[in-house]
Amino acid sequence: MSLEVIEPATEQVLASLPQAGVEETDAAVARAKAAFPSWRAVSPPDRAMLLRRLADALESELETLALLEARNAGKPIGDARGEMGMVVDTFRYYAGAPERLLGDTIPVAGGIDMTFREPLGVVALIVPWNFPLAISAWKLGPALAAGNTVVLKPAELTPLTAIEFERIAVTAGLPEDVVNVVVGPGRVVGERLVAHPDVAKVAFTGSTEVGSRIAAVAAASIKRVTLELGGKSANVVFADADLERAAAAAPMSVFANAGQDCCARSRILVQRSAYDEFMALLTGHVEALRVGDPLDPETEIGPLISAGQRASVSSYLEDGAPVAIRGNAPDGPGYWLAPAVLAPISNSDRAAREEIFGPIACVIPFEDEADAIAIANDTVYGLSGSIWTRDGARALRVARAIDTGVLSINSNNSVRVSTPFGGFKQSGIGRELGPHALEHYTELKNVYYATEDS
Ligand code: NAD
């Protein structure tokens, strides 16, 4: 059965592809397994050189990849270019890793004790549709640098850049079968990868629901997993903050990528004494957002990924939802939805508790620092968040008290190639990016060498 890939901005078929099943998945794992011994044996400088060449090859096709991603995921072309730039940077960053996978020597009696970071083998990478190639690169970079071979399963809705990636990897000189892309349904291809005895580890990004299922299936074989899951992050604005800056930055911290972002600061917590002023400032910024054709360089927000996603997100605007601010959206074909701000909202309301994954923000008033921390932490998630205040000591106190993996102070920017990314609580297990990701793609080995002259 073939897979029809739809362009969200036009609702037209963008591509029609063959879908893999269990048999094709097993074949991809077998290829990756066969390629592993020689890939792990590539010398560290040579592996580093191949990753640098891969980065160069991706950079030379950046514009084509960005256009493909923009059309397939419905994301603004400017965002798509930024994401492809991050893909290139990710491989450049991890090109430094093969020669820096250092071990320890540990003082012991009678000999020398040393540690090594060994590759795991075949790693399955299962990714979502919101940042298709960027999230793949976060996994591919450290996995390949550490000497693993991979099977990459893109989301059914957005497989196109992953397919191009496989081609570019071979063009750049990576040996055949080090990277294997399998396009097919999560329930079939994904589940088979998680259960497969020859897959050593699963690196997953997606919903908490599917992540929980993957952890359960992986447990049967004590398979390693890293999980990057959902979020419901708080953007905490204290009354002493630069309110104009905070209000100007808040909309795109929820509505970027049409709100389909695990890091979305979808709960805006505003100190009650500054509530009216903040809302007045926020209104102008939300109404000015440019929602429209992803291929127009002026566009800030594109359509949602699918009709199903729009229906699910729209349900939060029904039943007398307190829509305080509404942006605009085009008419006609495409899965459009105008950004909306619900305010004031209680943290116990459904819209404040569930990950909406669309362009809807909730504004929740709070009284004081303790109240802000309590509300920020009153969620099953713990992925990202922001703190806006001019009081430096308070910023750090609150940052330490919020149970979340990635925070920013007087900024909503929390994803960088060189710094760790990942969640507390039901937002996940493990970290991606930065130096820490490598720990999750290697196994620590301890070797003792007796040196006493008997
Ligand atoms: P999803 O969980 O439905 O699917 C993600 C991937 O898992 C897809 O490739 C899918 O085919 C596959 N899959 C589905 N069922 C499977 C199964 N039973 N076994 C194995 N694989 C299976 O998520 P989605 O709808 O594509 O993406 C949206 C979700 O992803 C949101 O919850 C969002 O918060 C989360 N997300 C998290 C991060 C992060 O880094 N924390 C980043 C982006 C998205």
Explain what this protein looks like in three dimensions:
The protein has 454 residues and is of the alpha/beta class. It has helices at residues 22-41, 44-60, 62-73, 77-95, 132-145, 160-171, 186-195, 208-219, 243-255, 275-287, 307-314, 350-353, 369-377, 392-401, and strands at 2-7, 12-18, 105-108, 111-119, 122-126, 149-153, 179-181, 201-205, 224-228, 234-237, 267-271, 323-326, 340-342, 360-366, 384-388, 406-409, 428-429, 442-450. Strands 12-13-14-11-10-15-16 form a seven-stranded mixed sheet, with helices on both faces. α4 (77-95) runs parallel beside α5 (132-145) and α9 (243-255) crosses α10. The longest helix is centred in the first third of the chain and has 20 residues, at 22-41. The structure holds nicotinamide-adenine-dinucleotide (NAD). The site of nicotinamide-adenine-dinucleotide has 30 residues, from α7 and α8.
List keywords for this structure.
38% helix; binds nicotinamide-adenine-dinucleotide; 18 strands; alpha/beta; single chain; 454 residues
